[in-house]
Amino acid sequence: MNKVYINALSKFLPNxxxxxxxxxxxxxxxxxxxxxxxxxxxxNNQIKTRYYAIDKNGxxxxxxxxxxxxxxxxxxxxxxxxxxxxxxxxxxxxPDLLLPSxxxxxxGELGDSSCELLSASGSCNAGMQALKYAFLSVMxxxxxxxxxxxxxxxxxxxxxxxxxxxxxxxKDLEQKPILAFEKDFLRWMLSDGSAAALLQNTPNKTxxxxxxxxxxxxxxxxxxxTCMYAGGEKQADxxxxxxxxxxxxxxxxxxxxxxxxxxxxxxxxxxxxxxEYLQELVDxxxxxLSDISYFLPHISSYFFQQPMLDDFKANGMDIPAHxxxxxxxxxxxxxxxxxxxxxxxxxxSGRLKKGEKLLLMVPESxxxxxxxxxxxxx
Length: 378
What we know:
The protein has 378 residues and is an alpha+beta fold.
């Protein structure tokens, strides 16, 4: 088996950073009233700025495929051109189309070469699934290089126009004119952008590379019901009724295609499952956590940092806060791309020294899965 190295990382962010006070200028106001929960959610998640691929009129400035293509183009150098790419492996929560797949649309935007293709679906772990497929391809000798990426365009999902029919119905039914928290919650968390990694079977001749030691992934969908979803409505028994089974009017009146999250379930499982799976991997991979120089956790909110620190420590796995590296506060939660953004910033910062180890952690709350990966600076 070949060794596999990340030799370049690149990101693309659309337009200018959007402050907390500007968010509703872009996402719009529902029912002519500012959100009651926005400030509470922002205080907990501690996000200061984020990026949107829309303007203040809600018009798109970039498609998801275009965001992805711009990030991938940034991987090119005098040693690598996209015409040499043998595999394109990407993941997203929010493809532009139901069909064709996101990866094919990105390849179409690039237009450089024909190559093997993988489109991973899901939410935050779609990017890690794409990275693992690229890793296994290069490790096995199936390809000598691969480009892996994560990308999101979530702003159009969160725009007030998507809730117009639903809010009109509130007035007809004389209901309390406020958006359900499960829908409003995510409007103040998410961001747009894309980041990409170049994987090769030899390290960089100069500078540093990140050798991928392993990538592990586990889904807990067999034991936990759906938590975050779009294109359906959760039923009393925990099942999800799909958009196909709603009438056209119901789809609009219930905001079926908007992104929703069961916040109570998130709190019950997201920390616990992360600890449980890390314990399993410490035993399986014989990990000495004291050897870890940087811990890169994809957290949707800083609200979860202290509970995770405490739960790890309570289970004999102390990863002190000074080793944690995250850029959530300035980029927001970019879903499947977030872990790439953390890797990109560290890789290009000049801070990394050869021999240091990076532990990546990516939870996905859609139906609860976790990915961990170990990288060594070489």
